[in-house]
UniProtKB/TrEMBL annotation:
NCBIfam families: LicT
Name the UniProt record assigns to this protein: Transcription antiterminator LicT
Gene for this chain: licT_3
Domain of life (superkingdom): Bacteria
SUPFAM superfamilies from the UniProt entry: PTS-regulatory domain, PRD, SacY-like RNA-binding domain
Pfam families reported for this sequence: CAT_RBD, PRD
Lineage, opening ranks: Bacteria, Bacillati, Bacillota, Clostridia, Eubacteriales
Example of a GO biological process term: regulation of DNA-templated transcription
SMART domains documented for this protein: CAT_RBD (SM01061)
Species, as recorded: Clostridium felsineum
GO molecular function: RNA binding
Length: 277
């Protein structure tokens, strides 16, 4: 195993005997070393084997700008998530999560705070991923001494959710089918309200994101309804009558009776995206 590229004293691109490249990290692994020299394998602490060429190349570019300790903590978070969620994650998670965490630290240092508008949906529909996000905040505090808000637990959970969805939608027909269904639902909203949706609006972006998660849940076991959700749905049905009627059209299109909580969230999103216009 030889050194193919050096990022810093603790991170390099290595090349194995089969000529495959991968990123390895370890304290002082490249100290006083040059490209072409053999690696002291005893110093290897973390190995990144990204099968996708695009993910691999972008990860290498990321390593040139992101501190090694950020990359290392994200690696630990992802490995922890794989074990807890017992799920396969798309290789891109190493790029997206590391980039997100790095930018998050930059914003905090600049005094900029952000809010995740999907935090309650993530808590409600993806409790396991959210718990991993909360654990990730603990890891970051313990390892880097940085305090992150609960919203960041939701953001981290969001990356894990997307990595699972993207992995399960690896086959083109599935992705194409989902894209068509999203477009069909958007058209139902357009024709119901006779409007042109603002595709650059936050409401539109939230609605499409919700639909992606929605389809991921659709064939799973239905979530049980509660009296609280039933009460809220009645309130929303009365307050947003047209949005509720539009939601029923979507339900009819899907050919499936939705749970009260799914009806509730869909109605609220339809109301928001239509009100924006």
């Amino acid at each position: 195993m030889i050194i193919k590229k050096i990022f810093n004293n603790n991170a390099i691109v290595a090349e194995g005997s089969d000529r495959h490249e991968f990123v390895v990290m370890g304290c002082g692994i490249a100290f006083k070393k040059s490209v072409g020299e053999k690696i002291d394998e005893k110093l290897i602490e973390k190995t990144f084997v990204l099968k996708g060429k695009d993910a691999s190349e972008k990860f290498k570019l990321l390593l040139e700008d992101v501190p090694t300790e950020y990359v290392s903590i994200c690696y630990d978070i992802i490995e922890y998530a794989k074990n807890v969620l017992d799920a396969k994650l798309n290789d891109y998670i190493y790029v997206t999560l590391t980039d997100h965490v790095s930018n998050c630290f930059k914003m905090i240092e600049s005094g900029i705070s952000t809010h995740n508008p999907l935090i309650w949906e993530i808590k409600k529909f993806y409790p396991k991923e959210f718990k991993v996000g909360m654990k990730a905040i603990e890891f970051i505090h313990d390892e880097l001494g940085k305090n992150l808000p609960e919203d960041e637990a939701a953001n981290i959970a969001l990356h894990l959710i997307n990595a699972q969805i993207n992995n399960s939608l690896n086959k083109a027909p599935d992705a194409a089918k989902q894209a068509k269904m999203i477009q069909d639902i958007l058209n139902i909203v357009k024709y119901t309200y006779n409007i042109v949706l603002d595709e650059k609006s936050i409401s539109y972006e939230r609605f499409v994101t919700h639909l992606r998660f929605f389809f991921h849940r659709l064939d799973k076991v239905e979530l049980s309804d509660t009296s609280d959700e039933d009460f809220l749905l009645k309130q929303v049905r009365e307050k947003y009558k047209k949005a509720y009627e539009c939601m029923l059209k979507v339900q009819n299109y899907l050919g499936k009776e939705l749970s009260d909580e799914e009806k509730l969230y869909l109605t609220v999103h339809i109301q928001r995206v239509s009100k924006k216009n």
